[in-house]
Amino acid sequence: MYISSSRSCCYLLSLAVLFFSCLANNLSISTDPSLHDLVYKHCTSHISAVPTAGSLPEILSSLFRELVEQSSVSKFYETSVGDDDIAISGLFQCRSDLGGDQCFDCVNRLPEMSNALCGRQVQLSFHWTVPARIRLSGCYLHYKADGSQISRLELQHKTCSDSNVVSDGFEGVRDGAFAAVVSGVMSGNGFCDMSYESVHVTAQCQGNLEICDCGECVANAVQIAQDECGESISGEVYLDSCFMTYSYDGINEIPGNSNGGFGTRNIDSGKFVAIVGGVAVAAAFILFFFCFCKSLRRKSDGLTLLQELAQLLKSDSTIESTDWASICKGEVEVLLEQIGNLQEASPCFGLVATVE
């Protein structure tokens, strides 16, 4: 049996949309140059600052496995792992605007980086330092002896750009952006990524903070940026339980300055052209399918479907309007069969409909 003509054409359009959606999913554009760039590391200055350190490698290994597993389903997770003598609490968090695969890929790198950056070789033995904190652009890892306390407002890392903004109105715009991000992070479930006039600002709180504590944390980070970064073109402030970054996007107004800030959403011009071109091609492809579907007829001249397609592409004549009841019959089955033959060539053609 054949699919009805209207359903056939809709199905062809759906295939085109699915095809270009698949292509688009493979064009991953990150808001940062690299989600895996190291922002900072904190390792204790002494070795294995916990009792019964002999079991520490196994405990940390178990902790890392659990955190990595959870990163495939969550952007934030904290747990505690240990035995009768020692317990280590740990957590990870990804930026809220990352996809699930991006979060997993980022967190999956953290255990190895922790071992490389915070482990120590002493004679013939390898030792771990506790506590430790590894922060990448897209995620971070923190583990410590269970029960140890630290202020959520404790400064962990700060950088301010060496380049300054030479604009009379910069401080007013910057302060407006800072006020907006404090409000935004409280109303945005602990994450805010926004542009305020010419300033791009991002803030995120640790996943276990209450709204008011989150607002207080980001407000403290903002105050540090105001006091210590001044008119710097960009800055980053990381406290124990939140971070805030900003960058001035009005670079063209400042001769000689370049933006080294974190978290800007400026898209490379080449990528932008590629995106626009891809969208245009997708639209043209879908429109072509629509017109081609309307022009299909049952032929007895021995031409295959692909030959008909080639003829249509070469034709300069206007495609005449036809009755929907007389089109998209047996050709649909042929088209589906040929698309099915492409399954092995590309996963984008993985969906083949059942013809009723």
From TrEMBL:
UniProt entry keywords in alphabetical sequence: Cell junction, Disulfide bond, Host-virus interaction, Membrane, Repeat, Signal, Transmembrane, Transmembrane helix
Q: Name one GO cellular component term.
A: plasma membrane
Topology versus the membrane: Single-pass type I membrane protein
Does the record bear Signal in its keywords?
yes
> Is Disulfide bond a UniProt keyword of this protein?
yes
Q: Where in the cell is it found?
A: Cell junction, Plasmodesma; Cell membrane
Name this protein carries in UniProt: Gnk2-homologous domain-containing protein
What Pfam families has UniProt attached to this entry? Stress-antifung
Task: Give all residue intervals belonging to the Gnk2-homologous domain.
Answer: 38-148, 152-251
BP-aspect Gene Ontology terms:
plasmodesmata-mediated intercellular transport; transport of virus in multicellular host
